[in-house]
Amino acid sequence: MDDKVVDSRVSRDGDAIRRRRECISCGHRYTTYEEIERADLRVVKRDGRIEPFDRKKLLGGMIKACQKRPIHIEDLESAANEISDELEAENFREISHMVIGTKVMERLHELDPVAYVRYASVYRQFKDIGEFIDEIQLLEKRPRPNRYQQELFAEAKHS
After folding, report:
1. Residues 62, 142, 98: CA angle, nearest 5 degrees
2. 19 with 11: CB under 8 angstroms?
3. Contact at 8 Å (CB) between 108 and 121?
4. Start-end of H helices in 51-128
C-alpha cells in the first residue's frame, strides 16, 4: 500500500510521533503512531551477573541510606527519576553498576551528607572504620552542592 504523510506531530504524552496518512490510490486517511523501540537497560553487577535495571531497587537503596534522616520521599523519588532518565538518555543497553552507584552518590551528596556516607560505605564496601574516617574527611573538604538552592538564586536573579 502506497501512502503519503499528510501531517506529523508529537503525541500528547511525548512518547510517540502521530502521523496522519493518506492512501495514494483510494484517498482513505488513517493515523499511525511511531515509537522509538528501546531495548531494556541491563545492569552489569560487581560479580559479572547481568540483570534488568530496576528503578524500584535504585529507590530502595536510596531510602535505606536516608532512614531516620530529614529527607522527603518526594526528593528521593525525584532523584531516582532523574537518574533513570539520565541512564535512558545515554542509550546504552548495558551499564555498569559503578555508573549507577556514582550517580546515586552524587544525588545523596546534594541531599544529605550522612545518607551519602551510609550509601558509600555499602557501595564501596568499606572494610574498617578508617575508610569511614577517610570518606568523612574528604566530604568535609568538598563543598556540598545544593541544586535546589542554586535554582532559587537563579530564579531570583532573573526576576
Report:
1. 45
2. no
3. no
4. 55-65, 73-89, 97-111, 113-123
